[in-house]
Amino acid sequence: MSLIREIVISQKEERDYLLAQDYITREGLRSARDSLKNDLIKVIIGPRRAGKSVFALQMLKETNFAYLNFDDERLLKVKNYDEILKVMREVYGETPYCLFDEIQNLDAWELWVSRLQRRGFKIVLTGSNSRLLSRELATHLTGRYQAFHILPFSFQEFLKVFDFEFDPNHHSSEGVGRLLNYLRRYLQIGGYPEVALGKVQPTIYLRTLLENVLFKDILRRYNLRYVRKLSDLALYLLGQVGGRFTFTKLKNVLSFRSVYTVENYVRYLEEGFVILCVERLMLKLKERLKSPKKVYAYDTGMAATFKARPFPDYGLFMENLVALELLRKGREFYYFQTKDGSEVDFVVKDGLEYQPIQVCYDLSDETTARRELRAIIKISRELNIRDPLVISWDEEKEVSYKGQKITVYPLWKWLLVG
User: Fold this and answer.
1) Which of 270, 300, 324 is the last residue of a domain?
2) 261 & 393 share domain
3) Do residues 162 and 308 share a domain?
4) What sign results for the dihedral spanned by CA atoms 158, 345, 266, 309?
5) What is the per-residue pLDDT across 139-197, written as a single tens digit (0 to 9) for each?
């Protein structure tokens, strides 16, 4: 038996085993299944181990499809891709659908996929690198693909793990208490499926996952020279969630040789879904690009695992979660710094409209409340913005500060209702 045939047969057995398992139904699955009616290449992209493969399997479950996983290094050694296609046909027959997992590992994959699409194959791809969209797809598959972004479990998906049903419109105080217990746990361990399902010890799993992303994905893809520097940079940024950085500051703190190297390494961490960078809202693009960026983790469990402080900081974890939820919803958002240096966590842009959002765990402390409310009032006046919002842990009320009405809304309700 040839090596390729052996690999494809073993992966078919893996596919059949995975299809027989029960999974949490992911958000957006119905839309993904409906998309199979068109001929566009489907691209499922997101962090490693966030559930892309399972989403693809759920999407294709009612179809006859071939499955190839390019995380298997033996497949990457094959230079004649027609040999892979030949064996795939031998093992699977005339199936019209193909699922190619972690396709970014394959050299010149986009040319091969483009050729297969022209021959009538219906293709679903998964990838753990945003470069799939920003470069290869934009260059070779312009207008011929449809993207689906998969992140670790949302809070709603996290609740499904525990079969916890909660009606935001009809609930008791006890029910809210139980919900807040789940939310606190979600902030601590995050939403990676294997962590949420209790199959692994969160800290050990997340540390190993980060190592795999750094050393298997980023280093292998970009053939980097300074291995330790990449690791130091990732750990530093993950320990500073909610904080601001400049490339020059990172160069000096971590003793990089050049700002250019730092810029590249930060971009690699973004493309590998290790960190999420948020820009400052500035009217001029040039000024925005020069301003400090804020950094968040792609999972609050990652933020908790690599936090710089020895104790949990739920305010920062909440802020990180709000950033992820805005990303999940496809919103355009920035942070804002007022003229006197006060900071507003997020400003959501919708066309010509803006909404400032401040995240605060506890507004009961008068000094904290004054600081948070003052900043959000200043941006409202500087940019003539209405409807400022403060997301709290569990308070819901409307307050008036210096003549401006501000809505205070609990995090759980913002996550579940919007």
Assistant:
1) 324
2) no
3) yes
4) negative
5) 777 778 898 999 999 999 999 999 999 988 878 899 999 999 999 999 999 999 999 99
